[in-house]
Amino acid sequence: MTQYDPTLDVLRQTTTASLTxxxxxxxxxxxxxxxxxxLLASAARIAGRAFTLRFVPAREDLANPAAWAxxxxxxxxxxxxxxxxxxxxxxxGITSAGIFGDILCGRMTxxxxxxxxxxxxxxxxxxxxxCGLPVWCNGIAAPPSVAGLTFVDWQQPIGCGxxxxxxxxxVVADADGAxxxxxxxxxxxxxxxxxxxxxxxxxxxxxxxxxxxxxLYPPNEATRTRYLAERDQKS
Length: 235
Hints:
Blueprint: H1 6-11, H2 16-25, E1 37-38, E2 46-57, H3 74-79, E3 86-90, H4 102-110, E4 115-118, H5 125-131, E5 135-137, E6 149-154, E7 158-160, E8 163-165, E9 170-174, E10 177-181, H6 186-208, H7 221-234
Parallel strand pairs: 2-3, 3-4, 4-5
Antiparallel strand pairs: 1-5, 2-6, 2-9, 7-8, 9-10
């Protein structure tokens, strides 16, 4: 049974925009992965712990169809994924070969993996859409992974979209892209981002009422005091 994680509940309600702002305030400048975009425009926000996979450039003696039967293959890595994780795949930004297709994505769906994020490409788009796995990727390509990449391992530190990702980091992906949150500060960041969104929701209401931006966003002391008073009154 997967252990309940209240931080994930908060993160599933929090936008990547708010999270990047909160992370920036804490000195984390590199958290937003360049490249991954939702495969489906209707994709709902996902949050989970990172299960990392790593590719390196293709080498002819290693990158061939025979490698798919190796004990250290993407197939074996998928079978090691616990329920609820998000597979984060370092494909070096290479988009000329699809790292996974509908069969591998379908198996991840069966294993209750929460989603797949990669700075590379996927193949079998129609089949992936049918299997229902939430996917953020950098494109679609028909050739298989071995046409451009060699799979080397899983659950290692990786780089994905220019961001360092450690196994078990927290990951959130939505319509704006994907963000990595260091595990050590994830609970703090989640709560701060939730408060940020409550405040920004209040700001939107003030704007709709005709309020001017200076002193409102970012708030001066008077605005902050008024916001806190109204928030506390509702709670």
